[in-house]
Amino acid sequence: MANDAVAGSSLRVVAPAQPGTSDDPVRGVLAAFTNDLVNGVDETLAAFLASEVDSLAEIDAAMGGFAATARDCVLAGGKRVRPTFAYWGWRGLTGGDAPLASVLPALAALELLHTFALVHDDVMDASDTRRGRPTAHRAAAAGHRAAGHTGDPERYGEAVAVLIGDLCLVWADRLMAHATVPPARMLDVRRCYDQMRVETVAGQFLDVLGEHDAAHWSVDRALRVARYKTAGYTVQRPLLFGAALAGAEADTPLIAAYTRYGLAVGEAFQLRDDLLGVYGDPATTGKPAGDDLRTGKPTVLLTLARQLADPGQRRALERAGTVTEAREVARLADVVRETGAVARVERMIADRVTEAQAALDTAPIDGTARTALTGLATAATTRRA
Length: 385
Fold this sequence. Notes:
Distance between the termini: 36 Å
Order of helices and strands: HHHHHEEHHHHHHHHHHHH
Largest sheet: 2 strands, antiparallel
Radius of gyration: 21 Å
Helix content: over 70%
Oligomer: single chain
Number of strands: 2
Structural class: mainly alpha
């Protein structure tokens, strides 16, 4: 049933805007392709997950509810950034004529991997909201209380969220198996995918460690966290994953260009996240502003602020990780800005976008993919959510 559901997914791909037909040809290309890609990914996920939820409901009625919660975490919105970069990595080699249906399940599987990482990350960060809704562990804890169950609701919620993440990781493997790619090529795809997962875990561990060892953290180490926790599995590895789906050979100019572009855009993506985590509008980001200051997470932004601060500012910044009141958090955010750290991070983002665009200039890829990736480098790093 799952195979039939995935096979029924459709994606309408239309011609890109041509130069001269729009004031912003990059925007025209992105509107022509990316919106339809997101719809195709969502349709694939919905069809696959409907079958999976039905199957688990047969085990026990409670399992049906649990599986439906996991499904809702996957389908609760999101920008589908990872499938998008994977698509353009694939499209850069194949051009516009290759049948997308053969690889669409593999692209959609990246969103299941992403949900696994988000749900576990929210537990580790003790986050209350995600995309404007209660996080999985908070929702499960609330359900525990409403049902009058015995035991600690918070502990129960965390256990349920861990299992939701685990299930999404298994679902990602299962959905990827629906891609119709030659077996030898799929081995290369799996190697890229496995490396992506290992690097994500490495980055997540360093992120957790940083919160408990902030005194020994540096900008270089904060960037290392960004490189492995975000850059690798958000941009660089999805691009290389898409290239592997297209049959790209290792150690080629195209792979070198994707690697360079992906690292630059991925780091810039995380640097923008650092800024949004302090200064973003909760109505847009779906998360409270200032969470990184409340926890004292040694992001590049906060680490730079500590380096640039004068003695008075440094004393104020020592309170990061201990403040809870919104007014105190807002004052800390002002101090961070006053050190010049925000302006420095903005320059770092701009430098990385320039580096990414330079990587594409001579890359031997499809012209439409080059235009789209150029636009995505800017869109992914100037976003407000």
